[in-house]
Amino acid sequence: MGDMTNSDFYSKNQRNESSHGGEFGCTMEELRSLMELRGTEAVVKIKETYGDTEAICRRLKTSPVEGLPGTAPDLEKRKQIFGQNFIPPKKPKTFLQLVWEALQDVTLIILEIAAIISLGLSFYHPPGENNEGCATAQGGAEDEGEAEAGWIEGAAILLSVICVVLVTAFNDWSKEKQFRGLQSRIEQEQKFTVVRAGQVVQIPVAEIVVGDIAQVKYGDLLPADGLFIQGNDLKIDESSLTGESDQVRKSVDKDPMLLSGTHVMEGSGRMVVTAVGVNSQTGIIFTLLGAGGEEEEKKDKKGVKKGDGLQLPAADGAAGSNAVDSANTSLVNGKMQDGNVDASQSKAKQQDGAAAMEMQPLKSAEGGDADDKKKANMHKKEKSVLQGKLTKLAVQIGKAGLVMSAITVIILVLYFTVDTFVVNKKPWLPECTPVYVQYFVKFFIIGVTVLVVAVPEGLPLAVTISLAYSVKKMMKDNNLVRHLDACETMGNATAICSDKTGTLTTNRMTVVQAYVGDVHYKEIPDPSSINTKTMELLVNAIAINSAYTTKILPPEKEGALPRQVGNKTECGLLGFVLDLKQDYEPVRTQMPEEKLYKVYTFNSVRKSMSTVIKLPDESFRMYSKGASEIVLKKCCKILNGAGEPRVFRPRDRDEMVKKVIEPMACDGLRTICVAYRDFPSSPEPDWDNENDILNDLTCICVVGIEDPVRPEVPEAIRKCQRAGITVRMVTGDNINTARAIAIKCGIIHPGEDFLCLEGKEFNRRIRNEKGEIEQERIDKIWPKLRVLARSSPTDKHTLVKGIIDSTHTEQRQVVAVTGDGTNDGPALKKADVGFAMGIAGTDVAKEASDIILTDDNFSSIVKAVMWGRNVYDSISKFLQFQLTVNVVAVIVAFTGACITQDSPLKAVQMLWVNLIMDTFASLALATEPPTETLLLRKPYGRNKPLISRTMMKNILGHAVYQLTLIFTLLFVGEKMFQIDSGRNAPLHSPPSEHYTIIFNTFVMMQLFNEINARKIHGERNVFDGIFRNPIFCTIVLGTFAIQVIATIPTSRLKFLKEAGRLTQKEEIPEEELNEDVEEIDHAERELRRGQILWFRGLNRIQTQIEVVNTFKSGASFQGALRRQSSVTSQSQDVANLSSPSRVSLSNALSSPTSLPPAAAGHSRREGVP
């Protein structure tokens, strides 16, 4: 009775502030503590405190039939007092948290350590550096620029790490933001049916307030807590709160408590909302979890009990501690007696509202194994195909890099020690130790450089960019991706198990054939041809025995089809009533939902629905409808042409099946039988004995409902089959209907050797004598199975699990499943990729899925396959590019270091290649749009290596070509270009032209290899479709431009230095002048002399003209004098130039070789206007 005292405590608390609770007859706290009770306890409490549920409605000022008045002030007041139906979401991770997560990458950690060591060493200048007697080995030919800029290397590595981290974090952040936007969009779209002012309206879930009368039906996820007022056969799956998968039957007198977050598995009804948002049961648990796992993790570390110190945002200021108390009791009452919820369990629940759906439907097969349960609660299946392969590859590359770098360091150290102490017989002097250490450190850095080059750090980036880009684009193709890896797993799918209704078909049901009064009509019969008695029974049977939420509304636009709302099969039947020129509304008005005596709702076991009503003479009539072969078995009479029942023997039934039902089914129609039965008023039948009640029926008619195949589906299925994906249809329909639709879709072709089984037959074949499922038996069936008809959700799950666990093929199958119903949850979770229907799908199905099809269309699945394959290919393209760079760079660095004690490619240059080229290349190659050709090949499968033979051939071929060129340039380049050799240059020499040529060649080869990398299947034309990807073109051209600018030596860019500054003659260094002397030969000198004389003449004439003009205008003399002085200085220059001993053009011409004669003349003329 702790709860009683609890609620007393609340009510006392409430009285202190009854200023705003007094409006209504009960406070929020009382209602909340009431909702914590279960079953009989709750019934007793309601009786003791309130009387009955109607009394609670009165206290909440609402009517069980009319609902709330729905006026704005009233709704506002309720929101203030009882809170809003909104649970504040978990705080998103901050950008810094995401940065910290991105930093955990192993590759990045290696790089960071290397960078920090490199930075530290660049600032360390040991003593004794200038001691001549210490060593003679070239310390890796480090020039002054590099010595001073030693820190650049470390800084550049760090910069590359920061870039990768920021990009990754930004990607995660935008992904999180997108996903939140998406969640809120889904939440806004989530509507719930309530009654307001006597009208049934659909309102957003967040608008529901305490006191609302909500209509609940099959497939709903309850949005708030409430009390059951009235309904039929309502069964709820409360496992998301209690962890028990048994369905709980709800009734006013036994268990009226309906809790938020639970799923309606069967039936329909009404409830009065009693608690919303943070005060509902789900809200309390969410608040306890701190709406997330952070506090939980902290507490697990400290070992603190769950409910401690967490303030509940109680909507009306009740003390937080009470809230925690109540939450604890709620968990205890929720059949978790230990008060301390198992952390992993609650976490799984909180992440996955559909953890409930892992309800192990195959108890017999798996024995409800505890391990399985644990596995089921884990968030997702094993690693995705690509992730697994990439991890393996990264580890292999890392190992190879380590080995190479270790060998490099060992060779360098050995070479140095042998050369210094053995060949040159130098003693080890104590003052030389720091110098030797510096050499060793230098070698270590070269080793680290080799390692850094070996590790493809662009890879994580390429994967992230590729996935993020694809997910964004897939939204346009009606694929809403909930789990990123699903996108790429889809590319490897080998099997798709699809629903029929709504996915392959349009889900717009229309009755096209009927069998009424012993006549089979091939089209809608004329109303006059049907007996009036039969017609009345038919209209009543259809209007009353269907969910009242199902209606046919007038079309939105002129000339469009009428809108179908609710269950589509029932819409088809109601449409049939309208086609017979009858109306169902008056029937429903006369017999409102509250007056229905008993309802047996449709479920996957019954395959039928029945409604019992009380007739005016106190007797009962039951209307029944359902799958024709099931309902006809229960019929013992049938109405004849005159509307009179006649005997209907099993023999007649068989004939009817042959002559009516099979032909309808073979046309791809669903056959539905409508029947009725009358019961006497006394004795009243035992309504719970279903087998006796649903028997001895009288058949009214059988109708054939057409659900046309979507026009784009056959082509989509043909594409799948061409792409090596088997499409299987799993449906609840009759086998003939299913077969006919499968042929129309192209899933099976007449004359082929394929299996079409019914659920029963399938189960018989896969189970042994004890009724246990055997994998070997499934393996015999699934490869040929194409259609599974009359299947239960369990059959679907069994099939999916059987295909995934099968070892029948060398590759493990990758299975995608589509589902829309609540009961498809287990199959969707078990599959590698679960597709839920965005329109027809229930909340449960969406929750269990990986991708939501926003248009419910099968052809969108084909788009998902295309995008998935594109992701895989993009990563492969990038790998092909990256590994070529890495192989070449590592070998060049390694051999260079071993032969010349210095890597021809400096660390900073390597990082430019690694960082910029990789990052940009990953962007360029990861954003290639998918093409239809992706669907022309078979899936790769799980065991196929990431680097195919063709790719290997490309990588090695290109590497050999690049290495040949680079080594040729390294060893004979100076002879080819007649330049100084950069090899074995002394310490602190400036960067040589020789090595710059090597670096430039290397980068250009990578750049063009990027274009080669666009094709990985050995296609000849690498330029095919290159302009369809503007990002690629921009990046290639951009990288080219930057490379060109980066490698022009600064000395050549004189204009950068000399902007706005006169050079004094003394500033020109001797060497430069001497160089000029060498460069200008005699012929050139003669040529120059001619030019100079010509200039002199020109200058004199110009000056004279100017002097004359000045005299004419009588202006001051100064202008002319100024001109004169400039001309004098020019003639001095010319004198300099013409003297043969030293040729030097100092001021007027920046460099004699760099300006052609014409330009020189031009500059001269400018000097003298």
Give the strand tally.
Answer: 26
Please tell me the overall pLDDT: 75
- Helical content, roughly? 40-55%
Largest sheet, in brief, is:
9 strands, mixed
Shape verdict: elongated
What are the low-pLDDT stretches, counting only 5+ consecutive residues below 50? 1-21, 137-145, 291-381, 1062-1080, 1115-1169
Indicate the proportion of strand residues: 5-15%
Query: What's the helix count?
Result: 44
What's the gyration radius in Å?
42 Å
- The N- and C-terminal alpha carbons lie at a distance of 109 Å
Could you say which structural class the secondary elements and strand pairing correspond to? alpha+beta
Please characterize this protein's 3D structure.
- By secondary structure, the protein is an alpha+beta fold.
- Helix content is 51%, strand content 12%.
- It has 44 helices and 26 strands.
- The strands form four sheets. Strands 10, 11, 14, 15, 16, 17, 18, 19 and 20 form a nine-stranded mixed sheet that branches. Strands 8-26-25-24-9-21-23-22 form an eight-stranded mixed sheet, sandwiched between helices.
- The longest helix is centred in the C-terminal third of the chain and has 43 residues, at 858-900.
- The N and C termini lie far apart (109 Å).
- Residues 1-21, 137-145, 291-381, 1062-1080 and 1115-1169 have low confidence and may be disordered.
- It is a multi-pass membrane protein.
- One of its GO terms (biological process) is regulation of cytosolic calcium ion concentration.
- It is found in: Cell membrane; Membrane.
- One of its GO terms (molecular function) is metal ion binding.
- InterPro entries: ATP_Ca_trans_C, ATPase_P-typ_cation-transptr_C, ATPase_P-typ_cation-transptr_N, ATPase_P-typ_cyto_dom_N, ATPase_P-typ_P_site, ATPase_P-typ_TM_dom_sf, ATPase_P-typ_transduc_dom_A_sf, ATPase_P-type_domA.
